[in-house]
Design goal:
The complex is a heterodimer of chains A (122) and B (107). By secondary structure, chain A is mainly beta. Chain A has strands at 3-7, 10-12, 18-25, 34-39, 45-51, 58-60, 68-73, 78-83, 92-99, 109-112, 116-120. In chain A, a hairpin with a 5-residue loop joins strand 4 and strand 5 (45-51). Classes of the chains: A mainly beta (122), B mainly beta (107).
Chain lengths: 122, 107
C-alpha cells in the first residue's frame, strides 16, 4: 500500500541543525511531488515546503526560507528536509505528504506520513 | 498570501445530526479547496478534494461544495467516529495555507 514514513526528529538546541527523512513505498515515487507540513503542539497545520517530482521546482514558506532545504533522491524513494538555525518556534510534529496528482506540484495531500516530532529547546 | 477562515472554530453536536462547516478564502481560489479530518495523535486524512470530490474510501455522508471564496463541508448524519478536527486547505497558490481548524465535539 502507499506509505510514507518520517524519521529524524528529536530534541535539538536553538541554532542547531536537524535532518528529517521521508521514506516512500507502494507507488512510483519519481512521479509525485512531496510536501512537508508541520503542526505545533495544540495548533493547526502549517505548510513548510514542496519539492516537485523531478526536484526541479521547490517552494518554501516564508517562515523557513533560507533556513530549511528540501531535497529528494528518486533512486532511494526518499525526501529530506534539512533544518538549520532552528528556533523554538520550529517545535512541531513534521509530516510529509504526497501531492494528489502524478506529475502535479500543488494539489491535495494524500497520503500523509505518521509524523516525527521536532523539539527545539535549550 | 491567501488567508483561509473556518467557522465555527468549535461545534458541539450529537450522533445523527447534520452539521456544516464553512471555509472562506481571502481571494478567489476557484475550486482549489480540500478538506481533511484529523483525530488526536494521528495524521490528517483527506476527505474531499477540489471542493466537491469525495476521496476514495470516505463515507458518502461527507459532502463538499462551493467555489470562488466560499466553501462548505457537510456531514449528513454524524457517526461517533466523525468527532475530530477538520481543516480546509487551499492549493491555488504558494504559500499553501490551511484554515485554523474546526473542532467537532460530542454534545
Amino acid at each position: 500500500q502507499v506509505q510514507l514514513v518520517e524519521s529524524g526528529g528529536g530534541v535539538v538546541q536553538p541554532g542547531r541543525s536537524l535532518r528529517l527523512s521521508c521514506a516512500a513505498s507502494g507507488f512510483t515515487f519519481s512521479t509525485y511531488s512531496i510536501h512537508w507540513v508541520r503542526q505545533a503542539p495544540g495548533k493547526g497545520l502549517d505548510w513548510v515546503a514542496v519539492i516537485s517530482y523531478d526536484g526541479n521546482n521547490i517552494y518554501y514558506a516564508d517562515s523557513v526560507k533560507g533556513r530549511f532545504t528540501i531535497s529528494r533522491d528518486n533512486s532511494k524513494n526518499t525526501v529530506h528536509l534539512q533544518m538549520d538555525s532552528l528556533k523554538p518556534e520550529d517545535t512541531a510534529v513534521y509530516y510529509c505528504a504526497r501531492d494528489g496528482y502524478s506529475y502535479g506540484l500543488i494539489n491535495w495531500f494524500d497520503p500523509w506520513g505518521q509524523g516525527t516530532l521536532v523539539t527545539v529547546s535549550s | 498570501d491567501i488567508h483561509m477562515t473556518q467557522s465555527p472554530s468549535s461545534l458541539s453536536a450529537s450522533v445523527g445530526d447534520r452539521i456544516i462547516i464553512t471555509c472562506r478564502a481571502s481571494q478567489n481560489i476557484t475550486t482549489y479547496l480540500n478538506w481533511y479530518q484529523q483525530k488526536p495523535g494521528k495524521a490528517p486524512k483527506l476527505l474531499i478534494y477540489a471542493a466537491s470530490n469525495l476521496q476514495s474510501g470516505v463515507p458518502s455522508r461527507f459532502r463538499g461544495s462551493g467555489s470562488g471564496t466560499d466553501f462548505t463541508l457537510t456531514i449528513s448524519s454524524l457517526r461517533p467516529e466523525d468527532f475530530a478536527r477538520y481543516y480546509c486547505h487551499q492549493s491555488y497558490s504558494v504559500p499553501i495555507t490551511f484554515g485554523q481548524g474546526t473542532r467537532l465535539e460530542i454534545k
